[in-house]
From TrEMBL:
Transmembrane segments: none annotated. This is site-specific DNA-methyltransferase (cytosine-N(4)-specific). Its EC number is 2.1.1.113. Gene3D superfamilies: Vaccinia Virus protein VP39 (3.40.50.150). PROSITE patterns: N4_MTASE. Belongs to the N(4)/N(6)-methyltransferase family. N(4) subfamily. It comes from Hyalangium rubrum. The keyword Cytoplasm does not apply. Keywords: Methyltransferase, Restriction system, S-adenosyl-L-methionine, Transferase. It catalyses: a 2'-deoxycytidine in DNA + S-adenosyl-L-methionine = an N(4)-methyl-2'-deoxycytidine in DNA + S-adenosyl-L-homocysteine + H(+). InterPro entries: MeTrfase_CN4_CS, SAM-dependent_MTases_sf.
Amino acid sequence: MKTVDLRSVPAWVRQFFHPRTLKEAISFANTCIHEKDCFLLACLLGILHHQRPGFLSYPSSHLVPYLRNELFPRAKFPDLYGYRDLRSRLIKKMSRALAMQMANRTLVVGESTVLHHPVEHLSLQRQVDTIITSPPYMNALDYRRDNRLRLWFLDRNITDYAPEPTDRKSAFDETISGFARNVVSFLRPGGACVMVIGDTISRKRIKTHPAERAIEILTGFDRKLSVERVIEDRIPDVRRSRRGAQAMKKELVVVLRKKVKTGRKESKNWSPNTSTSR
């Protein structure tokens, strides 16, 4: 791999890291991309930025990248702005990730953005018992902006971040339809599809009901699917990426079940007013 020249790195990226740390991180990311090692690349992205010592950046938030230099001024916390070696932190991250593996289980992991593509991209070739996922929140979050630092490490050609596709209802519908074709179609009879979906919100003068729309698309795709339960899960303010903001206040955990041949009692149609609290 070529030596990393930080002069080609955007200033907004450089401000997050000690120069030596940034060179190591970019070089390692380049190697992972070249070797197509998704596991190691994911481990790198997982420790890219935070305020704790086990992460690579200067003190910053974890979910949405922004520096916390007012909370941790350099003059008062000089150690937090020093070089952070990649090797030791990456080994610890890998150890934590590998320790969480489930024995004797097949776990299929796929990024939501690839669900439009043929199912071979997810290595899903047989029926599965359970699907657990969280599709992009329609008209609620800006994933590109919120993950801009990680995205830059994946693709250095990104110069700007266009509006989130799921701002448009048609794009959200396309995402859920792709999920139905490429993943839900492999759910075995009696199996469950569990989705964590953003609640009904009003944004940009548009009121959206993403859970209702997702259920409509999935049950329309497979008539054997029916809603078993919808659980309302309120989000504590300490868990929100923007505390005290007016955005997402709760999520809906939607459980759909695929009917078996012997017959399973159909659930009533769901509406945004029929969920149960958790």
